[in-house]
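Supplementary notes for students who missed Thursday's class. We covered one full example, reproduced here. Read the sequence, then the structure, then the short commentary at the end.
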Amino acid sequence: MSKKPEWFKGIFPALVTPFTKDDRVDEAAYRELIRYVLPHVNGIVPCGTTGEFVYMLEDERKRAIEIALDEVNGRVPVVAGTAYPSTRETVKMTAWARDAGVTAALVAAPYYLKPSFNEVYDHYDALNKLGVPLILYNIPQCAGTHYQWWTTEGMAYLDNVVGIKDSSGDMPYLMAVFEKVRGKIGIFTGHDEIVPAALAMGADGAILASANVIPDVWQTIYKAVLSGDLATAQTLMARIQRFVRILARQGPTQAVKEALQLLGLPIGDSRHPMIKGDAFRREDYEEVRGVLEELGKIPPRPMTYHLYAGAPGVQGQFPKPPAAPSEVRDMTLLVGEGFAGPPFSELAHVDLLIGRKDGPVGKAIERALAEPRPGHELRIVFERPRTLLVPTVTVRTKKQAEMVYEHAAGGVIMALEALVKDGTLPAALLDDIVLIANVFVHPGASNRWRVRINNFKAMKAATRKALEGRPTLDELIAEKESARHPFRYAP
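Structure (token representation):
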């Protein structure tokens, strides 16, 4: 007999919880986020993992659920996260959520002390007596307890268990779940990287962190798989894979919040111990921005460039977030930095100077070219804008020379071509500015393509950061506790 409810299907965002600067739940921002996702989703999930429920007080969790219920106003199901480490607290929160009017409760396995499978079963058996629809939540990377198929099968037969969300990313486990309980309860994936595969195998939907940011893309993928159009699903998944990989592997809370800020939604930051620039790294930020630009989520916006203070402005535009500046007031000397990997031996680090051809950067290029530097030979690698490549590490072998002057330089050239094409470097400026790219290539580098693509990413990021004045003073202060040397952790 099937207990799978008709409403439990489609795309449900695992909502982030916005916080104000003084660390309160930001009701206005929460409502704005819900209004943003609502046209594209089949339900919402407040107070899940991405919602930082483990960092919230009981009253805050209740308020977040109340806001979600009020804002949705019955238009889609509201599945509330009600998990606590103990059965007593979980029963209490789940009973409250039931009385508040949630459609169902999403309950992660008891975490921290890693109970046995019998104890996990007894935990859900206690919740089953409340009469509220229950969705099992398998997330071993956080809870520490990984369901087994036989445990899931047993819990699926509890009267009020109507579904499961599996965030493990463990496809063999998910296949066993399909074998044992497909049709009896709803089966959702919560691992963003495997959504098309899970849907193709028969999953009813997905509860996703990334659906905060790209709910429309996920809805298109869901409908494509449902209609048998796997080609569309595959194409879209390839376009968003970098983004969802970062969320799945670097921690979704800060990543999703910064992605939403790139779109102009005022979501704030994660609560401590999560901090800017650590689990979600600055190179990840640039990757996420790139994906959102490619999807058209960050459209071109105007930028006015002044070669020097008071000079007539050159008009241009390129894809940038709403919060980015709309003017470069003085291009006499701009500084940018970019970092990209993996892997370790092929990572790229670019220190960049941009300036007027007739200014200090232009003069530095002419002087440097006139002075021989054995082992650090300089190369002009691009003409418009004129760009000097400076190797950071002494070049000692033929292989190192190939890596620096062919593949790293190739990445720099790719970046400059892209920046000219998308308008970041407008045509009217190309003869008036020059660049110096100080490029690091590890002496042990061997993977030519990764050297090239990592230098492309690092050069593009360095240029954007120079023009946009990033990092700002506020960003530096906010991230001072997460500063790390890329090669050696030294607190």
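Commentary. Residues 10-288 form a domain with the TIM Barrel fold (CATH 3.20.20.70). The chain has 16 helices and 15 strands. If anything here is unclear, bring it to office hours.
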